[in-house]
Amino acid sequence: MDPNIIAASSTSNIQSFSIQFHIFNLLSLSNTNPLYNITRATNSENPSSIKPFSIIFPQKVMSESNIIENHSYPPIFRSPFNDTTRKLDLKDEQGEGAESTGTLDPLPLPLPLIDFQCLDDEKLDTACKEWGIFRLENHGVPSSLLRQLQEHAKTLFRLPFEAKQGLAKRCPIKYFWGTPALTSSGVALLRTSDALNMDWVEGLNVPVSQLHQHLQHIHHDPLINDFRDLLEDYRGHLTRIASTLFEAMINNLKLDLQQVKPCLDESTGLIRVYRYPRHTINEHVKGLHEHTDSSIISILSEDQVGGLQLLKDDKWLKVEPIPNTLVVNLGDMMQVLSDDEYKSVKHKVELNKNKERVSIGYFVFPEENTLINSSKYKPFSYNQFRAQVQQDIKLHGTKIGLQNFKLPHTSQTV
Ligand SMILES: O=C(O)CCC(=O)C(=O)O
Ligand SMILES: [Fe+2]
């Protein structure tokens, strides 16, 4: 057994008593019932199975910040409290788990670097064809804005889980966890209770059109007001960046900009703020499982922890975080628009063993009812595509995506 593990239920253990007392005090600061918070964690999906406070607590994660972090996580992510994860821990002890974030720890490979101030069309075209993802520098988003967004996001994520779940009322910022696949009202589409198959991520979903509508409302929590203002500022920058990149790509593809303009509809923009918990279990647990984005363009800013990986030539490659740069990837809709010349890149997020990670994604889509024409796919609207994806997730637990729309004579995928 791991020597760092103690039984917190042992009353003779002075250290464990002081930890219980400390947790009690910390959680009493919030409006939630601290005992409820702790005991409920024994079975997150079934609150009726509340058990007394009797947990195994690894000493190495006992700092104050860890305790705050733990009670802010969705219960199933609080690994020391969780039966499922104990089973997984045992696998680790038996050598089946891995110390690293994957059995094959991929090498970092520099992404193509695009200078937004002097856009090089040829370089951009090659990056879109060969990679479907690139790094953007000199994008004009102030580093102070990126820093403030990260700081505010971290503060919000550290709120108790129950407080985050209550965010929804009269607020465009909605909390989710366990899957980023949401209905248009922001509710999780399908969340498995299986720890191995869920996405170990929690997030805030912000449709930018709603951000606009709520700008005049004063939320009772100044933290939310400030965060909303920062997001609005960020939205302005990202719509500018997305539309400039889109125009350059359309130009490179020799398409008629006027005709395809509705394929980038600013009002469809979504901002997703994610927190990935630290890695505590084994390499099978993912922050986000392998997927492609459904968007036209996705733009990511991240802290310095890292975890994003992309599939290139059948190999997983690590994306290294570089301060003040953005990572841009193309989504399924851009692949269709380009007749498969550009790639909707497969990617995933691995968890870090020691640190949690915060990233902020911006996703923009075609106008809902515009038909997207391509020689490789039957014509469809983004509305139809999204409905199909949602149906596939409900029926098969996973997105099938573009394969559903491919014309028979072009079954080769990129
Ligand atoms: O957090 C990240 O690095 C990636 C997020 C992502 O892939 C997504 O939201 O689709
Ligand atoms: Fe993604």
TrEMBL record:
Listed InterPro entries: DIOX_N, IPNS-like_FE2OG_OXY, IPNS-like_sf, Iron_ascorbate_oxido_reductase, Oxoglu/Fe-dep_dioxygenase_dom
Domain Fe2OG dioxygenase: 266-366
Presence of keyword DNA-binding: no
Pfam families, A to Z: 2OG-FeII_Oxy, DIOX_N
Gene Ontology molecular-function annotations: gibberellin 2-beta-dioxygenase activity; metal ion binding
UniProt KW keywords: Iron, Metal-binding, Oxidoreductase
GO BP annotations, alphabetical order: gibberellin catabolic process
Family of this protein: Belongs to the iron/ascorbate-dependent oxidoreductase family.
Family annotation (PANTHER family): 2-OXOGLUTARATE (2OG) AND FE(II)-DEPENDENT OXYGENASE SUPERFAMILY PROTEIN-RELATED
Protein name stated in the entry: Gibberellin 2-beta-dioxygenase 8
